[in-house]
Every structure is written in C-alpha cells, then in structure tokens.
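>> received
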Amino acid sequence: MRKTRIAILMLGGLILAACRQGTTGTAPKSDTLYQTLEITKSDRTLTTGYSAAISGVQTVEIRPQVSGMITDILIEEGESVRKGQVLFIIDQTPYKAAYEIAVANVKSAEASLSTAKLIYESNQDLFEQDVVSEFDLMTAQNALIDAEARLALCKAEEVNASNNLSYTEVRSPVNGVASMIPYRVGALVGSNISQPLVTVSDDSRVYAYFSMAENQMLDMVQQYGSLKDAIKQMPEVELVMSNGQVYEHKGKINAISGTISENTGAVSLRAVFNNRNHLLRNGGSGTIIIPSELKDCIVIPQAATYELQDRIFVYRVIDGKASATEITVAPQNNGKEYIVTGGLQVGEIIVAEGAGLIKEGTEIKSKPAETDTLNTVEGIQ
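>> returned
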C-alpha cells in the first residue's frame, strides 16, 4: 500500500513538472521585443495584371483573285513589305492571251460601229429622198444600236481581262511584316485555297486584348464616373512580355466592350502600344499591368495580420498588451501590404509582424519596425 502511494505521488510530480514545462514553453518571454507600427495615412500605387493576346492593328490574309501556278515569289518570309509591293506572280500567259483577245474584240467592235454609223447616215439621206423605205432606215438604226452595245460589251470584257492580268501580280494591301509562306513556286493556287498565300500584319502599332471581371469593370467605371470618362482618364498601362521583361513603351486603353461574355462573365478591353522597333509580333502574348493610385489610405504589412475563419485580424497595442482586432481590407493588394478599409484608426499602435505567434493579452515590449518591412513594393495580383 505504501509503495502504491509513493508511485502515485511520483507520477503526480512528473505530470506537474510536465505541465509547468509546457506552460513555460508557450508563454511569451518577458524580454521579447515586438516590432510595432503607428497607424498613419499614405499614398500607394497598386498594380493588377491581366493576360493579354497581341495583334497587329491590321492583319490581312492575302489570297489570289485568279487561279494559276505560282511562277515567282518576290519576298522572304518575315520580311517587311510596303503597301502595293508585288509579293507573288501567278502564271500570266493565259491572262495575257485573254487580254489581247479582248483588245482585238474592242477594235473589231469599233470598226463595226463605224460601219453601222455610215450605213445609218446614208440611209437617212436616202430616206429623205424617198430612195429607201422607213423599214430600211429602222434596220440601219437597229444595226447601229447593236454595234454600240457590242462595243460596250467588248470594252467591259477588256477591262475584266486587264484586271485579271493585273491580279496575276499579287500585291500587299498594307504596310507590314510577312508571315511564313506555305506555298512554293509551281504550286497551283486559286481564290478558294485553304491557307492564304501569306499573312501581312501591320505591327507599327499593336493591340493587346485582355479581359476583366465584371465587378472590376464596374469599380473602374464608378471611380471615373462613366465608361467614356474611364477610357479618357485611365492612366497609361504597361506590358510585361512573354519573356518577363517590361516593354519599353507604355500603352493606353482605348476600347472597352459594351457587352459582358455570357460564358465567362468578363468584359473585353483593348490597349494600344507603339511598336516602331517591331519587337512585338501579331499572335504574341503578354500581361497588361494596370496601375491604381490610392490617396490617403491606411496601409499595413501583411505580416502584421492573421486570418481566422476567412476574417483578418491584427493586434492593437492597448496599455502595453496585445488586443485582437478584426479589420477589413481592399481586395487589391501588392502581395506584401494590405489597404485597410475598416477597423483601424490613425494614431493607433499595432504589432507589425508575427501576429500569428501572439496571444490575446500578451505583454508587448516594442521596438521600431524595420524600414524594409514597411516600404511600399508595387506588385501584380
């Protein structure tokens, strides 16, 4: 019995020691210094990124207007071309022959018309002298009308033949850059070919098309007052290219779709960029960066917060102790800071970092927050 009591006392002592050890390990040390921050107002520029598809301001698929065999290709793939420059030549032999026939038909029709005029004028004189009948005069007049119609038809055929001959020289309708060419000399082509002879993209300027969620678009419109004012007043945007580098020229949003996609619930926008060095190409991709300037706002580091059941909290320092306080923040952030929209007031003191390691009522011995922690860093969300 005595041994049993001794064993129970020893076990109780071990449990008490363990409890004391656990309490000591979780309690904040009295000599721990916490970085604190006094709430003030400041300005921030936040950025938001949107995936974008790049297109030349004008992209033209060039197809032949007449059928025939390609006899010459006068450009290199990827070459810059000028408006009106000859790119391909299609076999001209049958079209030259058709044109020469049309020219000969015009000359023949002109001769027939001249003859018909002489006969009609002669019959007019003879009719006045009662030498020929009215029937003969009307017959001559009809022959003249027929000759005039035949000449008009021959001239139209000549124009058509001339056009077809000119179409054998396939020209670029715009200035731009040529795509790859899927055809070679000797290929038989026509207006119904599945692939164009070449695609020419005018990329002296490029469009970047991207989409924005409906609620973001509404926030933007309400910020500027109207859709039209939003387009006029929105700041210039940047383009992050597919290699991660920022494009050297800034662009401007110049169009916002008037409809919302039923499938995605998003709104399409278009930004335009100068591309004099032709660095951006039709069909490319990138990320549009839209800045958002915020004035006189409360900004705190994200390290000063912790989340609990989708709610965000900070620890205010009240009478030297930590007091949990729920806050509301703007949905847009730079990845390191929150814009506080409610729950904090200017002049209050909060714990600047490590909020998740503190408990309610922890004694706070403060030290100034490190500068690097609180610097503004613009980011992309």
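>> Residues 48-57+203-294 form a domain with the Elongation Factor Tu (Ef-tu); domain 3 fold (CATH 2.40.30.170).
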